[in-house]
Structure prediction request, 273 residues.
Amino acid sequence: MGIIKRKLDLTAIIITSNEEKNINKCIKSINRFVKDIFVLDSFSNDKTQQILKKLKIRFKCKNFISFPDQFNSAIKLSNAKTTWLMRIDADEIVEKKFFIKLKKFLKNAKPNTKGVIINRKYYFNEIEINHGGVFPHETLRIWRKGYGKCNSDLMDEKIVTKPIQEKINISIIDNNSNDFVRWKKKHKNYAYLEAKNFIKKIKNLKIKNSSDYKKFKIYYKFPIIIRPLLLFFYRFFFKLGFLDGLNGLKFCYWQTLWFRMLVDLNILKLKIK
Prediction:
């Protein structure tokens, strides 16, 4: 294992809302390796802000409107002085080997490289999920200052940059420490946002040629109630979710069948309105 003597010329950006169970381990996983960390908090009413103060992390507060708005505001308010920026969620952590590989990559990055695509590992019940179409999950999380912003998707929002983007085989780890009651509550809200996002997309003719829309079109042409079942069987059997054992079954049920059922119910409600 290599040694990092100097911190990476990188600012980590995090948005938070009542993340007292996650934010400490998130920041401790990156604090030794990056030059700066900035957090934009949505006026948390738990101990999130106290933890940030104790760790001496720069943060500001802003009322939450949407994930894209909050993250783009965080980029602006961070007033980053570093060459590179990185998005990390409050329930994610990064291992030392991630930064060792990233430091070498950034040192040799071409001047026209604007974004860096990495992998995202997912844990459920604190057990790694390796199948079911979850990993590898490529995501652009690192970008050159001044060249990245969050797109307008209400759910599963992404950082977008101008070309050129390069890939590196390193992984950020999603390992949420909240209990299952909080997980369900968050995903009920996500289901509503996903439904709103879908209706927004089908009304926006500009995106009908995008790869995202084509995936939506295939999925949503199946009847309501049937399509979540089909997606569950696709992920659990065809994408080998069963290889993750009982936890894989639970993950595919809650993350696919249960969640997608909620999305469909919200779509019906929004269409009625």
In short: The chain has two domains: 8-174, 180-272. Residues 4 and 53 are 26 Å apart (CA to CA).
